[in-house]
Amino acid sequence: MGVKVSVVVPIHNARSCLDACVESVLDQSMPPEDYEVLFVDDGSTDGTSRLLDELADRHPRVRVIHNDPSGGPGRPRNNGVAAAEGDYVYFLDQDDRLAPPALERLEAMARRCDSDIVIGKVVGHGGRGVPKSMFAASRERADILADRLLGFMTPHKLFRTSFLRQHDLRFPEGPAWLEDHRMVVRAYLLAKTISVLADDVCCHWIKLPGRAHHSARRFDPIAYYQALREVLDIVDAHTEPGDERDQMYAYWYHAKMLRLLTGRTFLGRPLRPSRYRHHRQIRRLALERFSSGVDRFLPLSMRVRSRLLRAGAYGDIARLTAAEHGLTIAASLDAVRWTGAGLVVEASAQLVYADGAPVSFRRRGDRLLWEPPCALRTRLPDEAFDATALVRDSRLDVYLRCREDQGDYPLPTTSALVPEVEVREVIEGADGSVTHILLRACAHLDVRTAKLGRPLDAGTWDCFVRAETCGWGPQRRLGRANNPLGDSGAPAETRTLDGDAVAAEEVAVVQPYWTALGNLSFRIRRPSR
């Protein structure tokens, strides 16, 4: 049948960090004759080239392509695609690792669904952020907007090789900004079928401390935002004016512009002319390309920032950022108990700022308006703060994290995961009363089906809650603080599942326990033979 998958890895001066990546691609469950690995060396000067050639001599499935230095990963990836013999191409970076079953499972899904692109579950390490909602469930035919695919624009995906070649999908070459976005967004918009594989972790996306990354070079706001204009031009070429385009625009407006005016990114930037030049470039692009219609699809606090940005109110943006920084949830574990073969986990949470003050909303007529945590000198209309629909759609989700692979797995939607939202009146009575949001969740955990419809693997699983409200998404471990279970003993007894109900190869023993830091975890053990 020939080669099924070609793994393309751009390489530059990777001698000190390449072992884990190499071991992961050579240790795949896919038969060795079914895949190849193309290491494309971009002019390394630290001896990496020789090591790769020696590796290729020992492993027939490994090929090495030597490039003159180009200054970025684009040309190595493009040359890898040109040389690929596989039906599909998977892009991996030199610091990253593939999980053992990744290629086999990605390729099987691609063939089953006739996919042009398959996005396998990715876990970020060392500060790499990956959207959790995107990998909440596998999807044979994913939607770019509904399934939030724009939240993950790196090339860590499986692409049909003929699809890449047919549409001449190439990465910008050299030291380019947003090279991943410019290729991936075109691929998304041209693909007939995009699938998401979320059942298991496929790739560990890693940022190693102390290593220089291409994206970590000195920031050039003029070149960066010119690259973003080119991304928006691609969106314009493939969409019509309207809600779809505005929703796509909102992603980049939020992620690549407004978010740079928040948190450590904003507060840690020194007060000097370069900071203001950066802000001016953001405002210039906002006025040039982002209509007020885009604001409808922004998270609540970003909608307010957008108004302040257009008004040039940088002082208000700074005050809002400082006051909002550290927003989190105060979570309470209310109950853990057995019912039949499963566990019930009940939790509640309230949105709070770093100082513990609750996030507040003022009721005005039939609307709830966000009360910013600081006084704004710029006068904005009520619609900028309107959170009525957003509060109504709030959720509190319970999920488990595997200690071994760090993958997050929400409880299956077929289980009784019932987030309930209450609005608790702090000041009763007349128009203008202040309200806080209290979120409650009741999750039914059946260890036989909790991992996206399959049994949980043996090992340790940590329990988290995540609030989704008004565009905020804070999460935290569930622990014994303020819970009704007391300080002594385990949160629920160890339970061995009925042997008639669980196949011999499945997990059978479940032990909820408190960690040394007082958090809720589960030990899963297989029955002894």
Topology summary:
Blueprint: E1 5-11, H1 19-26, E2 35-42, H2 48-58, E3 62-67, H3 74-83, E4 88-91, E5 97-98, H4 102-113, E6 117-125, E7 158-160, H5 161-166, H6 179-190, E8 194-206, H7 221-238, H8 243-256, H9 263-267, H10 273-289, H11 300-310, H12 314-324, E9 328-339, E10 342-352, E11 360-364, E12 367-371, H13 388-392, E13 395-402, E14 408-410, E15 418-425, E16 434-445, E17 459-468, E18 475-477, E19 495-496, E20 509-514, E21 520-525
Parallel strand pairs: 1-2, 1-4, 2-3, 6-8
Antiparallel strand pairs: 4-7, 5-8, 6-7, 9-10, 10-16, 11-12, 11-16, 13-14, 13-17, 15-16, 17-18, 17-21, 19-20, 20-21
Kindly list the characteristics that best describe this protein:
529 residues, eight-stranded mixed sheet, seven-stranded antiparallel sheet, globular
What can you tell me about this protein's structure?
By secondary structure, the chain is of the alpha+beta class. It contains 13 helices and 21 strands. The strands form three sheets. The protein has an eight-stranded mixed sheet, with helices on both faces. Strands 13, 14, 17, 18, 19, 20 and 21 form a seven-stranded antiparallel sheet that branches. A hairpin with an 8-residue loop joins strand 15 and strand 16. Helix 7 runs antiparallel to helix 8 and helix 7 packs parallel to helix 10. The radius of gyration is 25 Å and the shape is globular. About 7% of the residues have low confidence.
